[in-house]
Amino acid sequence: MKSIFKRRSIRKFKSEPLQEEEISLLLKAAMAAPTANNLREWHFVVIDKRELLDELANVHPYAKMLKTATAAIAVCGDTVVQPTIGYVAVDCAAATQNILLAATKLKIGSVWLGVYPREQRMKDIASVLGLPDQIIPVSLIALGYPDEQKPANDNWFAEKIHFNKW
Ligand SMILES: Cc1cc2nc3c(=O)[nH]c(=O)nc-3n(C[C@H](O)[C@H](O)[C@H](O)COP(=O)(O)O)c2cc1C
């Protein structure tokens, strides 16, 4: 519960690189997410090369923070393993959220960068990362040790809650 409420989008990062074991834990958290029909169609591209992070920052219109991020994970889905694209999107979204929560617990800053269903972003990111045709990028997550602090989330919207029928 603490990690759920503490998670905020962090867009300023320190220059110290993440540890390999931390990245592995984030990926393990991603793989603990549920998938429709248990197809596990996701793939994860871990990016830690400065020039690739910069290239991604240049092709994604709202991802300038990738220029200071020390790593990123592209959460991608195999559209042959799961041909229903809506399921690819929601399965990758669930994996993405698990990564954000695990990162929060590990005191790693993160922000979800939307890719699917923006066709141009999908095309550009697939090209930067050399994805095979059947693999689509669903989200990018910028990562690094945080260089900004944000208050915990305290959202509560009573008007969004409906008991039994609407
Ligand atoms: C599907 C999705 C796409 C997003 N895309 C971007 C993005 O391209 N760039 C960005 O800086 N933040 C992006 N965000 C982060 C949201 O802006 C952020 O979650 C929201 O403002 C709430 O702030 P919080 O995460 O600190 O609670 C995205 C979030 C989601 C769920």
A few lines on this structure:
The protein is built from five helices and four strands; from the N terminus they run H-H-E-H-E-H-E-H-E.
How would you describe what is shown here?
The protein is of the alpha+beta class and 166 residues long. It has helices at residues 2-6, 20-31, 50-59, 85-105, 119-129; strands at 42-47, 71-78, 109-114, 135-144. It has a four-stranded antiparallel beta sheet, sandwiched between helices. Helix 2 crosses helix 4 and helix 3 packs antiparallel against helix 5. Helix content is 36%, strand content 18%. It has a domain at 32-147: NADH Oxidase (3-Layer(aba) Sandwich). Bound molecules: flavin mononucleotide (FMN). Flavin mononucleotide (FMN) binds next to strand 3.
What structural class results from the helix and strand content?
alpha+beta
Summed over residues and divided by their number, the pLDDT gives a mean of 98
Ions and ligands: flavin mononucleotide
CATH topology of the domain at 32-147: NADH Oxidase
- Tally of contiguous helical segments: 5
Assign the CATH superfamily of the domain at 32-147: NADH Oxidase
CATH architecture of the domain at 32-147: 3-Layer(aba) Sandwich
Number of strands: 4
Q: Which class of the domain at 32-147 in CATH terms?
A: Alpha Beta
Straight-line N-to-C gap: 27 Å
State Rg. 16 Å
- Name the overall outline: globular
